[in-house]
Amino acid sequence: MSSTICLSKFLKDTDCDICVISEHKLKERSLHYLSTIERGYNCISKADALPIGYNAYHGKGGIAILYKTSLQFSVNEISDINSSRIAGIELKNQSYGSLFIFGAYLPSDDSIENYKSELNILDNLYTYYSVYGNCIIAGDLNASCLDKDRPMSNNYKSKELLKFVSRHHLLYAGGEIQIKGPNYSYITKQITKQTMLDYILCNESMYRKLRYYEILDEGEISSTSDHLPVVAEFVIDSNPHRVMNSCDKLPAWHKVSDAQINEYKKLLNDPVDMLIDKMRSFSYVDIDAINDEFVNILHTAADIAIPKCGFNPHTKPYWNADVKRAHDNERSKRRCWVLEGRPRGMHFDSYRMYKRAKSEFRRVQQVANEQYIQSCYDDLNETAECDVRLFWKQIKRFKGRSSKVYPEIVYENKVCNTPESVANCFAEYFHDIYTNQRMRIILTMTLNVLSRVHTMKLLKHVVLKVNTYLVG
After folding, report:
1. How many CB atoms lie within 10 A of CB 68?
2. Which CATH number fits domain 2-238+437-469: 3.90.1150.10, 3.30.420.40, 3.60.10.10, 3.90.105.20?
3. Which of 18, 123, 267, 368 is the most exposed place for a label (fewest CB within 10 A)?
4. Is the separation of the CB atoms in 326 and 346 below 8 Å?
5. Quick one: DSSP state of residue 245?
6. What residue spans define the domains of the chain?
């Protein structure tokens, strides 16, 4: 039980969101045990098929993915994987889209055909799902992408793995990804044979979200595995779009003067030059960070130099120039009538002219409203024939809202703007629970469970691999 307790403590200490376990060595009937390792985690797992006559109390191989039940994503298992060595989940929410995470434990024997067969399955999965979102592959791949490991690892398997990585432009530790900690993940008694077999592979887009990648040194966790835990942290913005409220003031470019435009340009010159110099001074530039900084410069300059205007929620959609002229005329005639003491009767000129102007305004307003409604119907008829999704989007837009709900809540410097995040915000407030919003992915390879008391539930070796690689 020592390694299971260690894994449970590790999950708590790191507050990881996703934990991939390879080579758990559990039999099919004992897979439910993985869901009991730590509270607040669900598990998707697979066990290797055992040969006839296999009588050991533990199984062989196996792959599992643990994930937090409190994630701000819906989590679905990818069920169309025809392999007991590969498991996958899809994380999805409305604002971010989909993120696919695959855990893999590739064959460790000397059969090149078996290795190529499993790698081809992984290749097909990545090719298909990368069209719909970013993909991360984590696990014990039993081959090395590094030149230094070639003499100690299977050269043929390493070549196949490198082809796969190059074909999909994936980045790996020891290559483009800088490692904190040892430059190996598999340890042996002979120091010269220590190699990198455990990887978290990602594309360029996910690499920009990578905050750190660490291989924990031997002894940092009390694990008896011969694979070191690998920790990677990706910061994923669950709402990458800026939320605009009805009370926001926006630049009124139609009211801007030449003098204000010149002032706006002057305010941009120095900060933009400094930003360009900053980009040139670094060998690697985080595009997302530079983009955020540039947007902030534009907003700051516009706030100072450009006049603002707000959205008027009471504006009628049919209100056009003719309606405005008729309304101005009606208001003008009413003022004249009020100044004369509000006399009543058609024999008073001010009263008669006011009533005529009011009647004309109502006539023009009704005509404009009917024209607007007819144009809406025409748009619906057109979209119903060519674009069903746009049709229902317009239906939703035309429908009136029964209530006004403030679109976001700010609590302890966190912005909550989806129903799920708002609900969690209230839960944190009333129950004083803090949940770290950063996404951490833990890879755990080989869970070494040493207790022989729970022989039907545990495996002999449970190795934990952190944040996309648990013990290996």
Report:
1. 21
2. 3.60.10.10
3. 123
4. no
5. P
6. 2-238+437-469, 321-398, 407-436
From CA 366, how far away is CA 233, in angstroms rounded? 59
Taking the whole predicted model, whether its pTM rises above 0.70 is answered as: no
User: What does the block give as tokens for 240?
Assistant: 């990458």
* Distance between CA atoms of residues 221 and 217, nearest Å: 8
Contacts of 423 (CB under 8 A, 6+ apart): none
Q: Using CA atoms, how far apart are residues 309 and 34, in angstroms rounded to an integer?
A: 57
Local confidence pLDDT in tens for the 472 residues of the chain:
346 778 888 888 888 889 999 888 888 888 888 888 888 888 999 988 887 777 777 788 889 999 988 887 888 999 889 998 999 999 987 767 789 999 999 998 888 999 999 999 999 999 999 988 899 999 999 899 888 887 788 888 999 999 999 999 999 988 888 888 888 888 876 766 788 899 999 998 888 888 889 998 887 776 777 888 899 998 876 544 445 555 667 788 778 898 999 999 999 998 899 888 878 876 666 676 788 788 889 888 988 898 888 767 667 888 888 999 999 999 999 999 999 999 999 999 999 999 999 999 999 999 999 998 888 888 888 777 777 777 777 777 766 655 545 567 777 777 777 777 788 878 887 776 444 444 455 444 444 333 333 433 433 333 333 343 434 3
**Alpha helices of 140-222 — where are they, by DSSP H?**
155-167, 204-207
